[in-house]
Amino acid sequence: MNVAVIPFKPLRVVGLMSGTSMDGIDAAYMETDGDQIVRRGSAVTLPYPPDFRTRLGAFIAAAPDRGASKREAGLEGELTDRHGAAVADLLAVMGLANTALDLVGFHGQTIWHRPASPGTRPGATWQMGDGPRLAGILGVPVAFDFRSADVAAGGQGAPLVPVYHAALAQGDRPMAILNVGGVANLTWIGRTSTELLGFDTGPGNGLIDDWLRERLGLAMDRNGALAAEGRVDRDLIARMIEHPFFARRPPKSLDRFDFALREFAHLGDADGAATLTAFTAACAAESLKHCPERPRKVFVTGGGRHNPTLMAELGRQTGILVASVDELGWNGDALEAEAFAYLAVRCLRGMPLTFPGTTGVTAPTTGGRIAAPGSPTDGGSARFNLG
């Protein structure tokens, strides 16, 4: 007897992402069944007000030495409400009501990320965000806490986006996608869909932003202008690349604060910006040594692709053609938010989010939790600590 197989209905989803650069919230609309991408829609960014960004940054900097507190709960509630506002902004742009959505993918804000080190420490990760609260605000089910199951299974908990990159990828392979946010990560896609590698390469924009903030009170080196004026200390970069992280085989991941500015403190403003920019590029170039096959081109996503000084340095140090993912027809400003829309549906369906080649888990692993509207709030933080 033949049994008809009913395909999974594509869902209308908004994905939300606030990265380690802490500059704001990206929200992106998508229609997907968690396998095929039916439609990629509009996207918006809701910047964090300077006061909120300062308070969030101060909390993150102090978080390793503190536990939960009333201040944390208040900050988490405000963070969650801002994500709700980002969804509202996106729906207003699209002329849609909340009822048009089936699901929301809510990554939350990474407070700290401490991947497992074999034989030395268990893994731990914390993404602040109250999933039940957001579901209540929007009246829509929310997928959240995407990383904990992977960490519990012995994985690095990051990066999560390679499976989405693989779903988008067309054309010549192998293909490399470099995401330059606060921390940079690389996705390598081989000649078949099963050949997938993902790992953090090192600092992205985070140290550069910290340098501009500490030295000049600026949020970023816009267009790489200060770095373009400086002289790169190549000897310092060569010493920094000797850090054991870069020799370690992937999968591997980093916390936003695993590297600090102290090694660069003797440099002047412009020379420091130039050297930090070149260091980000050197980390990416070093990472390509771990790819099973060298790609012909590196496609860059995230805020780093807007920095022409960094893009030129990436090309110089990798010796490979470097281009923005926008050249592929992808939206480099919304790619991670789109990824969490895609991952939300995979979470709902119990499909794998992470793989041995992307986080080091022993087998493809699903993850995430679903909060339905009206479910009781539990403080909601996607916090997991095996220690």
Quick gist of this model?
The chain is of the alpha/beta class and 387 residues long.
What radius of gyration results from the CA coordinates?
20 Å
Determine the strand fraction and express it as a percent band. 15-25%
Strand-and-helix sequence, N→C? EEEHHEEHEHHEEEHHHHHEHEHHEE
Number of domains: 2
End-to-end Cα distance: 53 Å
Q: What share of residues is helical?
A: 25-40%
Number of strands: 13
Notes on the protein architecture:
The structure is a single chain. The chain is an alpha/beta fold and 387 residues long. The chain folds into 2 domains: 11-159 and 334-385, ATPase, nucleotide binding domain (Nucleotidyltransferase, domain 5, 2-Layer Sandwich); 165-328, ATPase, nucleotide binding domain (Nucleotidyltransferase, domain 5, 2-Layer Sandwich). The protein is built from 13 helices and 13 strands. It has helices at 50-62, 70-94, 131-138, 148-152, 162-168, 206-216, 225-229, 234-240, 244-247, 269-287, 308-318, 335-349, 356-359; strands at residues 11-18, 24-32, 37-47, 103-114, 124-128, 142-144, 175-180, 183-189, 196-203, 297-301, 321-324, 369-371, 382-385. The strands form 2 sheets. Strands 1, 2, 3, 4, 5, 6, 12 and 13 form an 8-stranded mixed sheet that branches. A hairpin with a 6-residue loop joins strand 8 and strand 9 (196-203). 51% of the residues are buried.
